[in-house]
C-alpha cells in the first residue's frame, strides 16, 4: 500500500476544518513512559499468555497468576510519569487551546489503556490553567474503554462493588511478587485468602479492567461520538482488538478523515489519510502544537 502523506500543515488544515474530533489511543501512547505494549517488540503477550491472564476464564482458573500480573502492572503504572504525547493530547482537550487550531470543534480521547496516565496528564493541564468561564462542554474529555488498573471489582455476581484503590501494594499477599513477574515468572500458588478482597462483602476481588470476551465500557457514548466524528486520530495502537480497531474505518466510511500516529506500519493504515511514522511522543506534540 502507498504511504499516506506525512505533511503536518496538510493535517493541520484538516484539523482546522473539523467539527468533531476523536482520538483512539493504545499502548504505544504510554510506551515512552516505560509501560510495555502488548504485541510488538517486548510486548507482554509475547512473554505471557493473554488467554490465561486477560480472560474471565483465566481468572476463574487461577486468580493467583492473574493478580500477580496485574499487581506488577499497577506497581509499574504507579511509578510511571505521563510523557509528551499524553501532555499534547491533554492540552488539545482544553477547548480554549484546541480552538486556536480547530475552531469550534469538540474532542474526546478514547483510550484502550488502563494505566491512568492520560487522566493524570489532563488533571495536570487543567490545574495549570485558569479555566475561562465560557468553557462548558457537554462531552467527556476521556473515555477509558478497557477500564482502569486501579479499579477493584467484586467478583461476586450478587455484589459487583467497584472501588478506586491505588494502594501500593494492594495487599500483603502480593507484596514483592512484582519482582518475580518482571523476571518472567508467575507464582500460581498464592492462596485466594491472601489475594485482594471486596471491601463490602469480603469475596475475592478482581482488577477492574476489560478482558477478552467482556463488554468494553462507555460503548453507548462511544457509538454516538463515532457516528458524528469527522476526524479520527489513531495513536499507538496495533488496531487489532475490537471494537476499538473498527472506529477509524467507521468514521472514514461516514466521510471523515483519519490520521495515524504509530512507530511503524499497522492495521490502522488501511483507513489513513495521514500517516505519521515515529514515536508519538515526538510526532504528536508537533502535529497538535
Ligand atoms: C508506538 C510506540 C510509540 C509502540 N509511538 N506508537 C473477530 C472480530 C471482531 C472481534 C473479535 C474477533 N474475535 C474475537 C473478537 C473479540 C475480541 C477481539 O478483538 N479479539 C481480537 C484479538 C481479534 N474483543 C473483545 O473481546 C472485546 N470485547 C468485545 O468484543 O465485546 C463484545 C462486543 C463489543 C462491542 C460490540 C459488540 C460486542 C474486549 C477486548 C478487551 C481487550 N483487553 C486487553 C487487556 C485489557 C486489560 C489490560 O491492560 O491488561 O486490552 S488486551 C490488550 O489489547 C489491551 C489493549 O487495550 C488492547 C489493544 O492493544 P493496543 O493498545 O493496540 O497495543 P498493541 O501492543 O497491540 O499495539 C501497540 C502499538 O503501539 C503498536 O502498533 C506499536 O507499533 C505502537 N507503538 N511504541 C507510537 N512510542
Ligand atoms: Zn463484594
Chain-wise SSE layout:
Layout: H1 8-16, E1 20-25, H2 28-31, H3 44-47, H4 50-53, H5 56-61, H6 63-79, H7 84-93, H8 95-101, E2 106-111, H9 117-127, E3 142-144, E4 147-154, E5 162-164, H10 178-182, E6 205-209, H11 219-228, E7 231-235, H12 247-253, E8 257-262, E9 274-277, H13 280-288
Parallel strand pairs: 1-2, 1-7, 2-3, 7-8, 8-9
Antiparallel strand pairs: 4-5, 4-6
The structure holds ligand BJW and zinc ion.
InterPro entries: DHS-like_NAD/FAD-binding_dom, NAD-dep_sirtuin_deacylases, Sirtuin, Sirtuin_cat_small_dom_sf, Sirtuin_class_III, Ssirtuin_cat_dom
Protein name: NAD-dependent protein deacylase
Pfam family, one: SIR2
Q: Can you put this structure into words, describing what you see?
A:
This protein has helices spanning 8-16, 28-31, 44-47, 50-53, 56-61, 63-79, 84-93, 95-101, 117-127, 178-182, 219-228, 247-253, 280-288, and strands at 20-25, 106-111, 142-144, 147-154, 162-164, 205-209, 231-235, 257-262, 274-277. The mean pLDDT is 94. Helices cover 36% and strands 16% of the residues. The chain contains 13 helices and nine strands. The relative contact order is 0.20. With 289 residues, it is of the alpha/beta class. Helix 7 (84-93) packs across helix 9 (117-127). The strands form two sheets. The protein has a six-stranded parallel β-sheet with strand order 3-2-1-7-8-9, sandwiched between helices. A three-stranded antiparallel β-sheet has the order 5-4-6. The two termini are 29 Å apart. Strand 2 (106-111), helix 9 (117-127) and strand 3 form a beta-alpha-beta unit. Its cofactor is Zn(2+). Its EC number is 2.3.1.-. The active site is at 146 (proton acceptor). Keywords: Metal-binding, Mitochondrion, NAD, Transferase, Zinc.
Amino acid at each position: 500500500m502507498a504511504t499516506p502523506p506525512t505533511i503536518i500543515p496538510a493535517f493541520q488544515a484538516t484539523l482546522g476544518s473539523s467539527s468533531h474530533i476523536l482520538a483512539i489511543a493504545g499502548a504505544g501512547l504510554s510506551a515512552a513512559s516505560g509501560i510495555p505494549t502488548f504485541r510488538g517488540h517486548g510486548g507482554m503477550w509475547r512473554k505471557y499468555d493473554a488467554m490465561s491472564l486477560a480472560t474471565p476464564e483465566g481468572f476463574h482458573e487461577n486468580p493467583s497468576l492473574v493478580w500477580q500480573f496485574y499487581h506488577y502492572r499497577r506497581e509499574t503504572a504507579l511509578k510511571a510519569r505521563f510523557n509528551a504525547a499524553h501532555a499534547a493530547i491533554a492540552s488539545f482537550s482544553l477547548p480554549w487551546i484546541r480552538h486556536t487550531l480547530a475552531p469550534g470543534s469538540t474532542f474526546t480521547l478514547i483510550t484502550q489503556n488502563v494505566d491512568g496516565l492520560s487522566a493524570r496528564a489532563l488533571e495536570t493541564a487543567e490545574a495549570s490553567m485558569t479555566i475561562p468561564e465560557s468553557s462548558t462542554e457537554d462531552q467527556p474529555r476521556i473515555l477509558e474503554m478497557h477500564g482502569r488498573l486501579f479499579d477493584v471489582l467484586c467478583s461476586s455476581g450478587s455484589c459487583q462493588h467497584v472501588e478506586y484503590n491505588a494502594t501500593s501494594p494492594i495487599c500483603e499477599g502480593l507484596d514483592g511478587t512484582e519482582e518475580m513477574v518482571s523476571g518472567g515468572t508467575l507464582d500460581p500458588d498464592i492462596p485466594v485468602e491472601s489475594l485482594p478482597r471486596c471491601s463490602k462483602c469480603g469475596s475475592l476481588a478482581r482488577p477492574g479492567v476489560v478482558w477478552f470476551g467482556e463488554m468494553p465500557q462507555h460503548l453507548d457514548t462511544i457509538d454516538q461520538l463515532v457516528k458524528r466524528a469527522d476526524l479520527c486520530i489513531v495513536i499507538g495502537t496495533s488496531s487489532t482488538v475490537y471494537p476499538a480497531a473498527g472506529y477509524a474505518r467507521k468514521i472514514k466510511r461516514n466521510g471523515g478523515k483519519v490520521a495515524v500516529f504509530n512507530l511503524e506500519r499497522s492495521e490502522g493504515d488501511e483507513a489513513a489519510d495521514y500517516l505519521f511514522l515515529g514515536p508519538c511522543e515526538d510526532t504528536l506534540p508537533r502535529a497538535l502544537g
